[in-house]
Design goal:
- The complex is a heterodimer.
- Chain A contains 13 helices and nine strands.
- Chain A is α/β, with parallel strands linked by helices.
- The relative contact order of chain A is 0.12.
- By secondary structure, chain B is of the alpha/beta class.
- Helices cover about 35% and strands about 15% of the residues of chain B.
- The chains are: A alpha/beta, B alpha/beta.
- Chains A and B meet through α7, α10, α12 and α13 of A and α2, α3 and β4 of B.
- The complex binds iron/sulfur cluster (2 copies) and FE2/S2 (inorganic) cluster.
- The site of one iron/sulfur cluster (SF4) has 13 residues of chain A, from α11.
Amino acid sequence: MQKTAGLIKKRVLELLADGTVTKVLGWKEGDFIYDVTPASFLSAQEADGLVYSSFCGANLSKYLISECKALTEGKILALLKPCDTYSFNQLLTEHRIDRDKVYVIGVGCKGMLDIEKIKAMGIKGITKVIDNGKELDIKTIYGSKTCKREDALLEKCLCCKSKNFKAFDEIIDPEPETKEEKADRFAKVSELEAMTAEERYAFWQEQLSKCIRCNACRNVCPACSCMKCVFDNPVSGVSSKANTDSFEEKMFHIIRAFHVAGRCTDCGECSRVCPQNIPLHLLNRKFIKDINELYGEYQAGEEVGSRAPLADFTFDDAEPSVVNERGNS
Amino acid sequence: MQVSENTENKEFKPLIVAFCCNWCSYAGADLAGTSRLSYPAEVKIIRVPCSCRVNPMFILKAFEKGADGVIMCGCHPGDCHYSTGNYYARRRMTLLFSMLDYLGIDRARTRVEWVSAAEGQKFSLVMNDFAKTVTELGENIKLGDLRCKKQQD
Ligand code: SF4
Ligand code: SF4
Ligand code: FES
């Protein structure tokens, strides 16, 4: 990781110096080493703060929408992990960003860590994490602790889509495609499908009731890129807030999931940022599973220009009654 | 304040919302009427220009307002007045109904049927059958309550 970070920084400085790019989108560290947030850098001096660590889970592609609009000269450098390049392609497909204005450096990724999972192991006061790719050596103010890397991976990284880059201008330190059997990303969806309708309702009520409507899941989502959103209520005086008790408010989760159905790349950002740990990916993956089963395998962002399943049809599509015919409840 | 009816000893009558496209299904409903074929009074028809006009939000709204069942009717595939509207609607509704089922709205409470302007008979049969199914399922859960905490009792 340290080596990759070094290579990235070196390359970023070169590209800034020769004028290929005028702005860099990357990550910077906050007060704690695991507190890594997206950041932009305009000069070599600023780029000193650029980091690439095991906590760079954030997908930077969505920032390119506003960056492309604001750009006047040169290019923006975006550091994208393999899974982020799917979102990048999806944004290109939807004409939200301009390929010519972006210089993509693909950065190798072993899977990113979830600080919540580490904290849940009772590890506190973390000052340093040494990641050898298999084990984590965690230094805390109370001493050292170790844990298996796979036990601390982000949900989205457990079912990593691919280690291959779907878009790039150059690549730094790519990882080989993992050989081990990946976790089945639809396992939990199937489990829910096997329950009765009442049980499912109870499950979702339990989960969705935790929502504080912070809008983080919407704001982070690269597929949620409308300029005007149904969940915004301009007359409220508070931006990004719908009327409490309004229809949109009550149906928030269903509407959000439907709006991104067929365009969601399953990047997992929504679940990652949710402060209430609501498993939003289970809603997105339900749509993805249905689409794969009914209309053929489809991965949003795999190819630029592919047609989203909901903006497409065939004459012999399944009749809606398939919903009633399958399953056992 | 809420005025509650005395619902004891009253047989359950479901509230059913039927979205019917103007060119086929609504005309089919008309034909059912003029042919004096009956369909349940609980079925409330909403006329839409094309099945494709049915925004998924309409369905959610119907459930939010207390519908026990929602049915969408359009021209047979291939016969849409706007050529391809119902093909898009077909995918949309399939995915939406599957999602609603996933969230706990029993899949038998949603249905799509293709009814042409000449099929007054089919319209009446479909509506009677759907009303029967929904009546058997009883009162629906409130979709809008998905985000409310469970009542402590
Ligand atoms: S819905 Fe979630 S997983 Fe899908 S693209 Fe948006 S943030 Fe990523
Ligand atoms: S991020 Fe989580 S808590 Fe915030 S609005 Fe989305 S689901 Fe609700
Ligand atoms: S007009 Fe009837 S479905 Fe389009």
